Amino acid sequence: MRSILSLISAALVAGCAATTDAPTATPARSETLSTSSSPTLSGYRNAAGLPALRSSPRLARAAQVQADYMARTGRFSHAGAGGSRVASRVSAQNYCYTAAAENIAYGQPSEAHALTGWMNSPSHRRHILNPMFTEVGLGNRNGFWVMVLGRPC
């Protein structure tokens, strides 16, 4: 059990990606996740003197695509179908952006637990508290959590 927890902790620390180059949940559920996490996410950002992130259905769809892929393949990775990365998944949702980043997590029993894990990881926390990001979308499938942050054009 201890080795499983160590593996999950290591995956949390390793599970982040960012780009500034422009190019059993459903997509509707992922949009609900964005809304339901807003108070907690807003609380963290507010404590850092930052504005709340707006929920983006397009970023939620990009996050859900990756959560679905990881659940389907069992691969915990930022690389998606065909080697896609967060930039290509965001662009595929017709989201015009100047910056985008992705946090992934696995095995947390709830959205709140995933967010706590990300906030306890310096690299994930940097994404969440980056003032450049103004929008967020979340996806979840079978314990695979994905957060995509963006700044629209």
Automatic annotation (TrEMBL):
Residues 22-42 are annotated as: Disordered. Residues 43-139 form the SCP domain. This is CAP domain-containing protein. Keywords: Signal. The keyword Signal applies. It holds the Pfam family CAP. PANTHER family: SCP DOMAIN-CONTAINING PROTEIN. It comes from the Bacteria. Residues 1-22 form the signal peptide.
